[in-house]
Amino acid sequence: MTDLTVPASESWGEWFDRHSRTFFIAPAVTLILVFAIFPTFYSILFAVSRVRFTPEGLSFRFVGLQNFARQIFGSEQDHFLGKIGELGLLEIGILTIVSACLLFWLYRSLSITSWVGMVGRLISALSAWFIAWLLCATLLIGNPIGTLLTTLFYVIIGCSLQFVIGTGLAFLCSQPIAGKNFFRVVFFLPLMITPLGVGYAMKMVADITKGPFQPLFGAASVDTWVWSASPWASRFVMMICDSWQWIPFIFICMLAALENVPRDHVEAAQVDGASSVQIFREVTWPQIIPVAVTVLLIRMIEAFKLVDLPNIMTGGGPGSSTESMTLHSMYIWRANDMGNSAAIAYLLLIVTVIVCASFFNYVVIGQLRKARAS
Question: What is the sign of the dihedral through the CA atoms of 82, 86, 91 and 93?
Fold first, then answer.
């Protein structure tokens, strides 16, 4: 620890200068302790306890991992994981292929990574196998999926779609085309709208009977179809709404990265006769990879916390088909079941860490190594 006593031979000003770093960082450390670390440990107490409201306040009864087991093996399994069914021959075949691919990947990793890296790869492989098994045991046999797979759908499919569209728009606006400054402003507008406004606006736009696209739906003879009554239609509408709000974030970041690519590199490739596709693949893409993977990683972390759009547009329905894990945790918290709500939040934390760490280790670092090699 730092000795904060003042020596007799030292003035107060000299003593303060000597310990100025401690005093400057102390407020930030205090705020982190009060608003981050303490609530984290307190929420762990909720996750391993059965919490009840009493006239004296909150009553905690330690139950260990029962709140977590309830989500995975107990009464909440259908809600969290989905309705698990028996695997058929097709599903067993798919799962066998996935298992073989993962085992081959682990075998190849033995010669290129340390034992610490192998532990991480083993966790990633087991997680991938579990998701594959869950897909086979629910979606592929026609059973409803749970909030875990719904959340991964929003994250993986939604973020991939947003990145492709956002990067494509950024590439177009980085070209010398007329009116590109106008399009830059227009593409950025959705990011400045609150999620509440986005939810209600998209709910009106997606209204088949009264929305602005009603004539088109009527001409296509689908004016009696209700998208909010179909689980997968609701999920796709939710993903489209979330993409409309967050594509501008990817657009503005990727546009800044594209405009920082040295023009002399591009012009040299053009002089050598390279096509536009070759220039983007060999010159532009390697230089914007650090920004691209960082933006995508940030967006994935945000997508795991999706709660406002499904809450506003469908209330998590039909049934619980559009509920994310965050929304599921919020609904249980509203029902005063603090222990299970905290358990779901920590399960979400585990899923987020595994997915984002795997993405960073096997996609980001791989792309960066490839870019340096080229």
Answer: positive
pLDDT by residue (tens digit) across 225-281?
Answer: 778 888 999 999 999 999 999 999 999 999 989 988 888 888 888 888 888 888 888
Residue 191's pLDDT band (boundaries 50, 70, 90)?
confident
Distance CA 73, CA 161 (A): 33
Report yes or no: 153 and 235 within 8 Å, Cβ to Cβ.
yes
pLDDT in tens, 13-36: 777 777 778 878 888 888 877 777
The two tokens of residue 115 are: 């034992």
Chain segment 67-97, per-residue pLDDT in tens:
999 999 988 999 999 999 999 999 999 999 9
Cα distance between residue 258 and residue 236, in whole Å: 30
For residues 111-123, give the mean pLDDT.
Answer: 82
Nearest to 231 by CA among 147, 161, 306: 147
- With contact defined as beta carbons under 8 Å apart, do 343 and 68 qualify? yes
Q: Which of 264, 247, 254 is nearest to 189 (CA)?
A: 247
Give the other-Cβ count within 10 Å of 17's Cβ. 11
Tokens of 208: 């088949």
Reported as a single tens digit per residue, the pLDDT across 166-183 is: 999 998 888 877 777 888
Beta bridge partners of residue 82, listed in sequence order: 145
Question: Which sequence spans correspond to the domains of the chain?
Answer: 84-142, 144-373
CATH code of the domain occupying 144-373? 1.10.3720.10
Distance CA 236, CA 341 (A): 26
How far apart (Å, rounded) are the C-alpha atoms in residues 25 and 47?
Answer: 32
Please answer whether residues 66 and 75 qualify as being in contact, where contact means their C-beta atoms are separated by less than 8 angstroms.
Answer: no
Which stretches of the chain are DSSP H helices? 12-18, 20-32, 38-47, 66-72, 77-80, 89-109, 115-137, 147-152, 159-173, 180-188, 195-205, 214-219, 231-259, 263-271, 276-279, 285-303, 308-313, 325-334, 338-359, 365-373
For the whole model, what pTM was predicted? 0.86
